[in-house]
Design goal:
- There is one protein chain.
- The protein has 190 residues and is mainly alpha-helical.
- The chain folds into 2 domains: 47 residues, Homeodomain-like (Arc Repressor Mutant, subunit A, Orthogonal Bundle); 137 residues, Tetracycline Repressor, domain 2, CATH 1.10.357.10.
- It is 74% helix and 0% strand.
- It has 10 helices and no strands.
- Helix 5 packs across helix 9.
- The longest helix is centred in the first third of the chain and has 22 residues.
- The chain starts with a helix and ends with a helix.
- Keywords: DNA-binding.
- It holds the Pfam family TetR_N.
- GO terms for molecular function: DNA binding.
- This is Transcriptional regulator, TetR family.
Length: 190
Amino acid sequence: MSKIDKKQAILDTALTLFVSQGFYATSTASIAKTAGVATGTLFHHFASKNELMNYLFLNIKQELATEIQSKSSNKGELQLDAEHLWNVAIDWAIANPLKQEFFQQYSMSPSIAAEIRQQAMTGILSFMGELITHGQKTGILANYPLSLMLEGCHGQYLAATRYFLDHPDKWQDVTHKQASFSMFWNAMKT
């Protein structure tokens, strides 16, 4: 197994174990053993379990952001652009249930350091801040503090994805799909 394969095996195993057992109940030894690598190999790639958790969090958040940006549709109408981003993000969550479960458990958890969550919001997902700022400048969105707006958007996303992961058939129902976006949008507009 190459170094890259070993690192990926560690990440895949950590994701599965963190979701199924919890961060605190998952030892680095169990991650290494399940991944089929030596514990020393795990520590070669990640100095600590916290570093592994942070890397995994940012890596998955980047995957989500890349998916959203690769399918972005800049029609120039803020509400339509936001709805498209919302739908792409929830499609990603449904297509990646284990990764979304990880977000459900750890996005608001003290297991992820505040500066790591901040890096994800203002760095990786910076396009969301830009969209909100544009909406505020044009008077379409409420002029609340940006950091609070981003946290509110994130909370709405987590709530909607939790619902649709629990009820996957509802995401195909136009009424539920549109209602989820309307609730998100109405929380931000003026």
